[in-house]
Amino acid sequence: MFDLTALELARIQFGFTISFHIIFPAITIGLASYLVVLEALWLWKGDTAYRDLYHFWLKIFAVNFAMGVVSGLVMAYQFGTNWSYFSTFAGSITGPLLTYEVLTAFFLEAGFLGVMMFGWNRVGPGLHFFATIMVAAGTLISATWILASNSWMQTPQGYEIVAGRVVPVDWVAVIFNPSFPYRLIHMTIAAYLATALFVGATGAWHLLKGHDDKRVRTMISMAMWMLLLVTPVQILVGDLHGLNTLEHQPAKIAAMEGHWENKPGEGAPLILFGWPDMAAETTRYAVAVPNLGGLILTHDWNGQYPGLKEFAPADRPASAPVFWSFRIMVGLGVLMLLLGLWSLWLRWRGGLYRTRPFLKLAVAMGPAGIVAILAGWITTEMGRQPWIVYNVMRTEDAVSNHSALTMSATLIIFIVAYCVVFGIGLSYMLKIAARGPSRFEEPPPLEATPRRPARPLSAAPDAIDPIAPPHDGEKG
Q1: What is the CA radius of gyration of the chain?
Q2: pTM for the full predicted model
Q3: Which residues are within 8 A (CB) of 32 and not within 5 positions of it... i.e. 6 or more apart?
Q4: What is the pLDDT of residues 415-452, one digit of tens each?
Q5: By CB neighbour count within 10 A (0-12 exposed, 13-18 middle, 19+ buried), where does 220 fall?
Q6: Which is nearest to 133 in space by CA: 38, 67, 23?
């Protein structure tokens, strides 16, 4: 396919499938916590708007959760089919971490999901709220184990290599590797922001359509508060994550910044825009701010950090995609902050729910959180190249021995299947969102619901009198 090698096709296939998959866990994490907040407010205040919103978003959560499970299974199988040498080399670490995710998180979510979805009038309100909390906790535990595995591949520690294979020697060091805390917090906040934008866009769309009621106003109000309060935290965490990356993966930072070399006595500039040229070893058409890059990354006006020329050409990430994906992520983060600030000003002026330009921007920003997550993932994973385990195993040594024809065929199958299956799922989820929240009709109490016997013999009376006389008209 297009003269690509089997390695390149395997990377494209993995990138394609994970790009689909990452959408669903992110929204699942955010919606699960949002449902906890809605149910807590309903139990606390007794306001039916929160109850109605809970059941409205529960439907979307269920569809999203199902698509996340399906796409996650494909991801797990790809490690064995397309990256078998990586699985052989590092499976003693990544395998247990992903197993812990299933045992501690997936089973927890699955165990309480039924109560959460179908137990509204079948269990007490306290138990139902507890089930919602457990599902939300399961999503966060799942993210913890998955990010521990990915972070170890970025900043590996706590291992030895014995007979050509990785052997864990310190599980605490493996799990709590240097980049793990930053990635976990950064990704969790990103999931919350992506969900807030989705919720806010849904509320804004209904307001633009004239569907103005308390439920819709509550949606957009809560979403805008989340953007306003959490986006600055995300920017701070992103800065700390950048400093951690500079310490442990300096080549990635150089690629992100399109920074090739330092000039004696000058702080590193911040290149706002440009096009990194790997062959010419320069960033063409650069628009730069002198010294600002060094100030941000070293907190020193004359600070410098390694340029790409300080690394062997074979160890340099492809700068152009990393450079631009990073700027897309940061640019969208700035827009989120501006949207939150605009909402605060409109809230103060009393025009939050009727200012059409603001509502149109909120609708347009609906996918921004997901796009930012995808851009961040591209920055993280392509910036790690050419390593699959940083400074330990190269990506080219991890791929299975498949032909380019085989990889091309499976890639085409994945593209077609994903577009059909997940296209239908996303379409259905958006249709639910377009219907909007409505008044939740409480189902009848369980005792008042006629029940069919589960087994034929259970229809018999509890006791039968063996000497009871026959009915009238029957012969003895």
Answers
A1: 27
A2: 0.86
A3: 61, 132, 135, 136, 138, 139
A4: 888 888 788 888 888 888 888 787 766 666 555 455 55
A5: buried
A6: 38
